[in-house]
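Reply to dn_fold:

You asked what the input looked like. This is it:
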Amino acid sequence: MTVLLILGPTAVGKTKVAAYVAEKADAEIISADARTIFRDIVVAGDRPSPEILARVPHHLVGVLPPEARYDAARFRADCERLVAEITARGKRVLIVGGSTLYIRALTRGLFPGPAADRRIREGLAKLSTEELREELQRVDPESAQRIHPRDRVRMIRALEVFRLTGKPLSAHWGRERPFPWPLTKVGLTASREELYRRIEERVERMFREGLVEEARRIFEMKLPEDAPILRTIGYRELFGYFRGEYDLSEAKRLIIRHTKDYARRQLAFFRAEKDVTWLDVTGKTVEEVGEKVLEIWHAAQSRLQ
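and this is what came back:
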């Protein structure tokens, strides 16, 4: 049995396409989204609508409290458990999302590395991005070359592994454990103009649906500064507005800009993935894209039999 993996940049339309495919294929959906997994992130994470959640079983949506920490290793373990449970019920499995590290945990595997160490991470989080980069170049030049110079999360993880094991992260490459089920990978993309239009429309919709109020609730929780939920695009820009650093229109402009930047990074990351069938959704309906995805999934399943 193949597991369908739908990936792509934010706002490209993955949620609705996944729901259409899941209904047609009698499948259940596992979310690969690092923000949707939190209970309190509804608007900012563009969580699937109540109507979609009622139609199609979803997993890893709204299950963690705001102060929780969750990483790619836990996601991978949860995915393996959920796929086994869903297939045991006679259902097919569809994984959908755009969180790059979660996707990599499935497609490239994870090495059996040490668990996260909060004390080490808190210390590293106090360093500037340039300081993290300099230390990583000193202790693990191979990882420094492969990790984007502004990717604090991956640099901190690489340094954490070195401090806990005494070995560079690059020394563990090649020891990754593959995902137990074959993956049929389908990527959704769109023209830059179309993707940017969708991002702008989504941000406007999020404001109408209560993004400012949701962000203020999170802001007033006084969570630890390193809580992952606080890095959510939409929150961090509005936090500046709440602190009086700029007006609401500037906060909205920053959200749109940062979302577009994020979409570009996602696309660059996903383009490096192997064996992805890419579908351009520009000018196509959800049904048209969904039918093409079903066709690809069915063909992949037939090749296994």
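Residues 97 and 276 are 14 Å apart (CA to CA).
Hope that clears it up.
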